[in-house]
Design brief:
The protein is mostly helical. The protein is built from 15 helices and three strands. Helix 6 crosses helix 14 and helix 8 runs antiparallel to helix 9.
Length: about 375
């Protein structure tokens, strides 16, 4: 990067994201030692793989940063088609990989790629471009709103076919939030939310395993060695952490008590080892990260860079939504859902896509016109 690029880089956003990545590397290194030693004979296998994902993520973030935003806008329909193609491919028998009853992964050599993660990014980029092109129609009538809703429903159906209920919730929630921020009438958004909630309730009652998870969430002690086992072990991890934790590497719950300790429930292990202070610190960093992204979005809108502003709002909703759901699940606030904690949880697809979003956000801020230049241009116009 040249000197001008370094000076225009949003170091606040970058350092917040790097802080979360560093915490994730430490947490995963601690949480996965016993698991990796037992399965692979190498206690640092998951750590090394996570470092590999970080390296790929940095490369993808750099590519996203140096790609002009006009290219992202023009390519948004093709990104959406690519996401749809990947979501269809993962459902093809023999192509997609099934794990724990869900067919969500595409084996790509040494890594397993999860198309649902890329679909979130592609949806935000496409919807942001669509709202710029067709914003007036979307805001004024149901007919204009029906076009993006049809696309969103199709994506949701593909995700539910895997099934990936958590990704469906985040995708639809982000889209509805972005539509509301774009000025769509509140009554329309509330109608869509009510329809989505009704459909989700019906799907919960239709699937026995979802109903089992819901019952375990309401009273995990009713079946402590069955459906409630995971949540109970997570709550024990929180309780053992107390104020300052048991110390890094000293977690007991990671020793085969808490399933998925280094993936969906890594925050529980972090809370056990660093206590309330460490858990609140991570929440504060996430809050600062989302607030910074929203600020960048409002700055972009203030310069009439509508597409860039919508991108920021969409990515902020994804980060905030996934962090809230992941932490809520591990603390018993929400029913169990398989969602990663952005920048922290073990999982190559989530980390790589999150880094791509970070690169795009850094590019948005880099392209922001300095205040001094805006003032000069305004004075010239007035003169």
């Amino acid at each position: 990067m040249n000197r001008q690029s370094r000076q225009s880089l949003d170091t606040t956003l970058l350092w917040l994201a790097l802080a979360l990545m560093a915490i994730g590397l430490v947490a995963i290194s601690s949480a996965s030692v016993s698991h990796a030693e037992h399965l692979y004979g190498n206690p640092w296998r998951q750590t090394l793989r996570h470092m590999m994902y970080l390296s790929i993520g940095f490369i993808c973030a750099s590519v996203a940063f140096f790609t002009p935003l006009s290219v992202w806008r023009k390519a948004s329909p093709w990104l959406l088609l690519l996401a749809i193609g990947l979501l269809v491919a993962v459902l093809v028998p023999g192509v997609g990989r099934m794990v724990n009853g869900s067919q969500r992964w595409l084996p790509l050599g040494p890594i397993n790629f999860q198309p649902s993660e890329f679909a979130k990014l592609a949806m935000v980029v496409w919807l942001s471009g669509f709202l710029v092109r067709q914003g007036d129609q979307v805001r004024e009538s149901w007919k204009g709103l029906a076009k993006p809703i049809a696309v969103l429903l199709f994506l949701a159906l593909l995700l539910l076919a895997e099934p990936d209920f958590g990704a469906t919730v985040i995708l639809l929630g982000t889209a509805f939030g972005l539509l509301f921020m774009a000025g769509v009438r509140l009554v329309y958004v509330l109608g869509l939310v009510a329809l989505a909630l009704g459909s989700m309730v019906a799907m919960v009652y239709a699937a026995p395993y979802r109903m089992q998870r819901l019952m375990a969430y309401q009273d995990p002690w009713a079946d402590p060695f069955g459906s409630g086992f995971q949540l109970i072990q997570s709550l024990i991890a929180y309780g053992r952490g107390e104020w300052f934790g048991v110390g890094l590497g000293n977690s007991i719950q990671k020793l085969f008590y808490l399933p998925e300790a280094h993936t969906d429930f890594v925050f529980s292990i972090w809370a056990e080892e660093t206590g309330l202070v460490g858990a609140v610190a991570v929440i504060a960093i996430f809050a600062a990260l989302v607030a910074r992204i929203m600020w960048i979005g409002y700055q972009a809108l203030g310069q009439n860079r509508i597409f860039e502003g919508y991108l920021c709002f969409g990515f902020a909703l994804i980060f905030a939504g996934q962090a809230f759901v992941n932490m809520g699940v591990s603390s018993g606030l929400l029913p169990t859902k398989g969602l990663t904690l952005p920048f922290i949880s073990y999982g190559g697809s989530s980390l790589i896509v999150s880094c791509m979003m970070l690169g795009i956000l850094l590019r948005v801020e880099k392209d922001r016109e300095p205040t001094s230049k805006r003032r000069v241009r305004r004075k010239r116009v007035e003169a």
